[in-house]
């Protein structure tokens, strides 16, 4: 089992890139996290270091601060990071794609270089207390005001890392709620704008990743709208399609290392491992191999110019299943790690529980696959 599952070793330019990156990493290791330093701040320092070596935004055109290479190059960098157990580049890849697809030329030139450099950190303000799966039903309004302005009122929920962010990709209703999908628009909201209140929430694992965002008479300008009025739904669906397709996160090598550890354990304990546990480890190995084969195919598709779409729901389901089964099994096999002794398995196990919720729940992914990929008829709702 390779520790670089997305190594397409047959291409010389990729091999050179990997070699250069490994040499850079040898001289620029992940900085140590300060005793009281929030994880997001530590990752932000790492992001800036990677950017100083030009290892962020490899697939973004040079005119917007990237390197003008392909998504395969970006995937190779994440693969190398994952192989070293280092955190990936903060997940800006999907936001960069959305700005490339929907932003005006002026917005791309102004926002992308700062996003890639980590000069501006971003969060995503889609979900609300009454609108998660039913995102099109959201209530936050951006009403037209004189002089090309908007006044925004509403509340967002589960906004990850808003307390450490400068800008928020905000989804709000600009038109008539009777046409829920057609009346949404997207904005880039500076979080220091008067009327914005960010309140962090403490999760069960002790992290304060989530925030509530309160928006009271917040003023935005037309130039802060991304895309045309009414483009919000298409923009949101593009955002989540890239988010659900997690090729460039460096997760695969991380899973691969744990799968290998389980496999070795099963081998060493042959005959002394309960049958149930042995077959669970077998399933983890199969899940992982399926995920790798699938990710390689998806990478090739991306290279051929295919943009992310409804197939990302398949990626998200496969990733969720593999990740949740892997950490559940690992905790049964290495129960000492339940208390965080000798590894991060317990923390990763806790976070894996959220995989079937964030970026759209597993039920919603199945609905998308049924409707948009399999074209199955909608359920009969007469009962
Ligand atoms: C770790 C994490 C990070 C997140 N970060 C962000 C963020 O940065 N920005 C952001 O905007 N949001 C974020 N979210 C929110 C996330 O997108 C929502 O939690 C998710 O979309 C589900 O919405 P909900 O929580 O309102 O659940 P609900 O939509 O209320 O769903 C409750 C249950 O009902 C089921 N359900 C609902 N509708 C259907 C249906 N039509 N068919 C079948 N089942 C259905 C769901 O599957 C779920 O099991 C984050 C969530 C998590 C867990």
Automatic annotation (TrEMBL):
Keywords: FAD, Flavoprotein, Oxidoreductase. The keyword Cytoplasm does not apply. Residues 123-218 form the Acyl-CoA oxidase/dehydrogenase middle domain. It comes from the Bacteria. Residues 230-374 form the Acyl-CoA dehydrogenase/oxidase C-terminal domain. PANTHER family: ACYL-COA DEHYDROGENASE, ACYL-COA DEHYDROGENASE FADE29. Belongs to the acyl-CoA dehydrogenase family. This is Acyl-CoA dehydrogenase family protein. It comes from Streptomyces ziwulingensis.
């Amino acid at each position: 089992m390779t520790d670089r599952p997305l190594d397409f070793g047959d291409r010389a330019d990729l091999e050179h890139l990997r070699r250069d990156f490994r040499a850079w990493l040898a001289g620029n290791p992940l900085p140590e996290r300060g005793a009281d330093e929030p994880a997001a701040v530590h990752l932000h320092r790492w992001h800036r270091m990677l950017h100083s070596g030009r290892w962020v935004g490899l697939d973004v055109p040079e005119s917007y601060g990237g390197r003008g290479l392909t998504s395969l190059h970006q995937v190779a960098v994440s693969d190398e990071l994952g192989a070293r157990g280092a955190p990936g580049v903060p997940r800006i890849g999907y936001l960069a794609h959305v700005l490339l697809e929907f932003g005006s030329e002026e917005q791309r030139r102004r926002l992308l270089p700062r996003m890639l450099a980590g000069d501006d950190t971003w969060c995503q303000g889609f979900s609300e207390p009454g609108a998660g799966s039913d995102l099109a039903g959201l209530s936050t309004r951006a009403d037209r005001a004189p002089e090309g302005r908007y006044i925004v009122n509403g509340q967002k929920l589960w906004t990850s890392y808003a307390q450490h962010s400068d800008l928020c990709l905000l989804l709000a209703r600009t038109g008539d709620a009777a046409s829920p999908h057609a009346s949404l628009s997207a904005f880039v909201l500076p979080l220091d704008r008067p009327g914005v209140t960010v309140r962090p929430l403490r999760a069960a694992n002790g992290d304060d990743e989530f925030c509530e965002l309160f928006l009271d008479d917040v003023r935005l300008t037309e130039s802060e709208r991304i895309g045309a009025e009414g483009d919000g739904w298409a923009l949101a669906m593009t955002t989540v399609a890239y988010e659900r397709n997690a090729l460039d996160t460096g997760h695969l090598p991380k899973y691969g290392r744990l799968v290998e550890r389980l496999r070795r354990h099963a081998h060493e304990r042959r005959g002394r491992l309960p049958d149930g546990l042995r077959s669970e480890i077998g399933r983890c190995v199969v899940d992982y191999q399926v995920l790798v084969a699938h990710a390689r195919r998806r990478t090739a598709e991306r290279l051929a110019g295919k943009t992310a779409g409804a197939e990302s729901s398949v990626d998200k389901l496969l990733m969720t299943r593999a990740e949740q089964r892997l950490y559940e099994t690992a905790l049964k096999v290495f129960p000492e790690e339940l208390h965080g002794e000798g590894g991060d398995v317990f923390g990763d196990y806790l976070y894996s529980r959220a995989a079937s919720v964030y970026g759209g729940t597993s039920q919603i992914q199945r609905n998308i696959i049924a409707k948009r990929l399999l074209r199955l008829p909608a359920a009969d709702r007469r009962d």
